[in-house]
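Weekly puzzle thread! Below is a chain. First person to post its structure in token form gets bragging rights.
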Amino acid sequence: MVDRRRATEIATVFDRFLTEIKLLPQSGRYSAWNLQKDATMTDIDTRKKQLLSRLAELDDRLTRIEDELDDAPNPDWEDSAVESEGDEVLEQLGTSGQDEQRAIEAALKRIEAGTYGECVKCGAEISEERLDALPHTPFCRECARAM
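Winning reply:
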């Protein structure tokens, strides 16, 4: 049989335990919340590396396009016409590459601000599947579809 004093001690310990459980997310201790946060940070770090890698690829591609566009024009009129068409294609590729660069830089800013993975239009969480396909996307599927 437990006496009244022992029951009070048990209740006090239990109350402390409940208090600690309520305080875990605010404290520096590890909890399920902190472990989930750490796992998310790893995912964010992986996304950041993907974005930086793609940014480096785009930079290299855009440099090659710029070099190609800077080449001296061919003196032959027919060859020059063909090169002109090729230059138009290269300019469009360069423009789309610059657009993607801006989108990636914006995504990196969202990572630094702590808002990466949130739709900039409605605030909903962007699905992992969508981020896998377009890591720099600022919109959830529904908002992107509505545009």
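Puzzle host: Confirmed. Bonus trivia for everyone else. The first helix runs from residue 4 to 23.
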